[in-house]
Specification:
Layout lengths: L6 H8 L7 E8 L2 H10 L6 E8 L2 E2 L5 E2 L6 E9 L7 H12 L7 E4 L3 E7 L6 E16 L2 E11 L16 H4 L5 H22 L5 H7 L6 E4 L4 E7 L5 E5 L2 E5 L6 E3 L1
Parallel strand pairs: 1-2
Antiparallel strand pairs: 2-5, 3-4, 5-9, 6-7, 7-8, 8-9, 10-11, 10-14, 11-12, 12-13
Helix pairs in contact: 1-5, 3-5
Keywords: ATP-binding, Biotin, Ligase, Nucleotide-binding
EC number: 6.3.4.15
Protein name: biotin--[biotin carboxyl-carrier protein] ligase
């Protein structure tokens, strides 16, 4: 299958933000995040976006594998300078991705800290079932005195193989709007992501607090964590940490510490 990737259009939109920005598109790689981390380690530190039609060893949060056939999932990574004094980048990126996918944006919610979910009625029970549509992985690396972020984003486009089993049923863009494909999703999302990272380095999470609150899947819902905390989602603090209201008071959960699911 041949894809018509909008590389030049994306470059024209992002280049004013980062004059030395480049975008590379490859048919296959092990992991776009791994490749960009290796580039930074070798001294290639200019902002770059790497898009792969197929990944053989893609990585998600907590080391989870992410693999897909060409066209079934949009998989790309962005490497850019990072202000280490700011916190909550994955939440800002979630807001930016939802804003970009504005034709379905009212259905999409951010599941702290780095996933985008949506609900669809179960055909048998009529109850809403949540589906994971987007995964975001933020990794950081220090080169010299500068810290860099390598941001991996995976967006499901087509339904997964029927034989696959998932704890959370996967969602896919074509379930919400059949006009989407991987190139059109990249064209919408990539400029928003780049601009969000650029603005985040200066302003941090604060300008996105209200936007996140409107998209927060966990707020007001009963939650449990993998280390036994139970309570009600109470939003996030100024650093992007999850707040859970429990019988023992307000608990603060830091990114990467535990997994959280609505009851």
């Amino acid at each position: 299958m041949k894809f018509n990737w909008p590389a030049e259009s994306i470059w024209e939109q992002i280049q004013p933000v980062w004059p030395d920005f480049t975008i590379d598109i490859v048919s296959q790689t092990d992991s776009t995040n791994t490749q960009l981390l290796q580039r930074i380690r070798s001294g290639q530190t200019a902002p770059v976006m790497l898009v792969a039609e197929t990944q053989t060893a893609g990585r998600g949060r907590m080391g989870k594998a992410w693999a897909s056939q060409a066209g079934d999932t949009l998989m790309f990574s962005l490497a850019a300078p990072l202000n280490p004094e700011q916190h909550g980048l994955s939440l800002v990126l979630g807001c930016a991705v939802i804003t970009a996918l504005d034709t379905i944006g009212q259905k999409l919610k951010i599941k702290w800290p780095n996933d985008i979910w949506y609900a669809q009625p179960d055909p048998n029970t009529g109850q809403n079932l949540w589906h994971k549509l987007v995964g975001i992985l933020v990794e950081t690396i220090l080169y010299g005195r500068q810290r860099y972020a390598v941001i991996g984003i995976g967006i499901n486009i087509n339904p997964p193989p029927q034989q696959s089993t998932y704890h959370t049923p996967p969602g896919y863009l074509k379930q919400l709007d059949p006009r989407w494909d991987a190139p059109s999703a990249l064209a919408c999302v990539a400029p928003h992501v780049a601009q969000a990272v650029y603005n985040f380095n200066t302003h941090g999470l604060a300008p996105w607090q209200q936007s996140f609150a409107q998209k927060d899947l966990l707020a007001g819902n009963r939650l449990y964590t993998s280390n036994g905390i139970q309570g009600t989602g109470a939003g996030i603090d100024l650093h992007g940490n999850l707040l859970i209201k429990t019988a023992d008071g307000l608990k603060t959960i830091s990114s990467g510490e535990v997994s959280v699911r609505p009851c």
